[in-house]
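Summary for the steering committee. One of the milestones for this cycle was to obtain a three-dimensional model of the protein with BES bound, which we needed before selecting residues for the alanine scan. The sequence and ligand used are listed below.
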Amino acid sequence: MTDFASLLVPDRGQQARPIHLVDKDSFAAWLKKRPAEDRALLEAQRFDGKTAYAFAILPRGNEFEVVSAVKNAAELSPWCLAALAGKLPEGTYKLAHGQPGKAALGWLLAQHRFDAYRSKKDDSERGPRILVSGEPARIEATVRLAQATALVRDLVNTPAADLGPAELEAAAAGLANRTGAQLNVIGGEELAVGYPLIAAVGAAATPERAPRLIELEWGKPEDPRVAIVGKGVCFDSGGLDLKNASGMRIMKKDMGGAAHALALAQLVIENRLPVRLHLVIPAVENAVSGASYRPGDIVRSRKGLFVEIDNTDAEGRLILADALAKAAEGQPELIVDFATLTGAARVALGPDLPATFVNRDDLAGELEAAAREAEDPIWRMPLWDPYDEQLKSDVADLSNTSGNAMAGAVYAALFLRRFVPSDIPWAHLDTWAWRDSAKPGRPKGGEALGLRAVWAFLEGRYLQG
Ligand code: BES
Ligand code: ZN
Ligand code: ZN
C-alpha cells in the first residue's frame, strides 16, 4: 500500500515549492501583487484562476512555484488538492498561505493506486509530499483515514476469485494480529446451527469458499459497547434467482459493506477510541450449485423467526439478519451496519449518496451533521412502518422481499429492523461502495462511501466527548 505517512510531512522549515491557492474571487487581487513576469507566464498558460482544479507553473531558476485554482480558497474541501497531487512531480511542496487541513486527505488518496494486477507498476512511492504544521496527531489521524479508505478500495477492487470468505477472514485476522484484538470465526456445523441464514446463503459455494461469521472484539470491557456489522457477500451471482450479465458484472463489490466495517474497526482501534468494539462480518459467496438454497425454502433464523425465501438474490438481508441478531445479543449502545444491499438505493439517491436508515431521530441528526462536517454525504430514508406488513409470508413469519417493485431499499431496511431490538440505537447504511466514473482523488472502482461520515460521528461522540 502507498506509504501515506511519507507524503504528509511535518513542517520543520524544509525547502519546499510554494503552492498558491486562488479562487475566482481572490485571483484578481492576488495577481496584482505578483511580478509582471508571473502575469505573463500565467497568461501564456491560459490560467485564469476560475477553472477549479486547473494549475500553472511559475519557474524560479531551476525550481518552480505552483498556482492552483480551487472552488473556495478560504475553506478547503477534502478533494481540492487531489487533481494537483495526482499531477505534480516528486518533491516537497507547501501551501504559500495556511494549511492543507481537510485537503490533506485528497492529497494522499490521489496518490493511491490499485495496481496489484498491472504488470507495469506506477512508481507511487515517489509522489509529491506536502508540509503541514500543527499537531503531529492530526497528521497521523489523516494518514489513518487515507489508509482506511484505501483498504476499502483495495478490498472491493480485488476480484472475487482472489477475495472469498477466507480472504475476508484473513483481512480481519491481520487487523487482529496487528492490534491485539480478539478474532473469532464460526463455520461448519456451528454456523449451520447458530447462524442458519448465513449457512443457507453460503451453502452453494465450494468448500474453500465456505460461509463463515467473522467476529472481532477489542477494547476495555467497561467502555461503551459499539457493534459494527458489514455485508460480506464476496460474489453475488443472485443464487438460483440468477442475475443477468450486466447485473452480475460488478458483484465482486458485494462485500463492500464488510470492507467499510473492517476499515471503520481499523480506525476505531488505531485511534484508540474508548469503546468496546464488536465487529461482525457474515462472509459468504452467493453461488449456484445443487446445494443452493431455493426460492420457497424456509429457514429458521438465529433470532427464531422463520424466513421464507422469496428471492435468493435478496441474500444480503438474510446474512445480516443473523449477524445483527448476534450483535444485538451483546446489548451494545449502538449498532451500525454497512451493506451494498439494494439496487433500489441507487435508483433513489444515485451512487454517491448512501441511503441511511436510523431508528432514532437524534442519532440520525448527529450522523447527518458528522457527514456534512466530513464532506462524506449520506441521506436519511424512512423506516416506513406502514410498509412493514408487506414482508408477510403465506407460510412463515416473514418473507425476504415485499414482492413488489417499489421502495426496495425501504423494504430491505424494514426486513433488517425485524432483527434489531427497538431499544438499541441502530443505523443502516445502504452504500454503493463503488464509483462509476473517476473524480480527482477518487478513481473509478471500489470506494468508501459513508465511512468518513460514521467515523466522524464516532470520533465526535467518543473521542472528544
Ligand atoms: N447486492 C445486491 C444489491 C445491489 C445490486 C447492489 C446492484 C449494488 C448494485 C443485492 O443482493 C440484490 O441483489 N438485491 C436485489 C433485491 C431484490 C431481489 C429484492 C435488488 O436490489 O434488486
Ligand atoms: Zn443479491
Ligand atoms: Zn447482494
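Key point for the committee: The chain has a mean pLDDT of 97.
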